[in-house]
Amino acid sequence: MRGGHVPQRTCRGCGRKEPQAALVRYVAVEGRLVEDKMKRLPGKGIYCCNQDKCRERMAKRSRKVLKQGERRCVVVTEEGSV
Ligand SMILES: [Zn+2]
Fold first, then answer.
1. What is the pTM of this model?
2. Domain range for residue 37?
């Protein structure tokens, strides 16, 4: 509707605001954070810079979006999952 408006998302790791396209979307699936490269996974997505530092911090912070009682948080990238 608003032409030229770029949606911004906040990185869960460092808290920086970036254009949505510059961040990687992750979705909590069965207690794990799965990289949503195709942007097609349903559910609550969180965004993070494509940096290991940010991913680590995101994993610690994102337990709230995971199921209650889930203690560990595993970040799954497409490269790492078959
Ligand atoms: Zn970041």
1. 0.71
2. 8-76
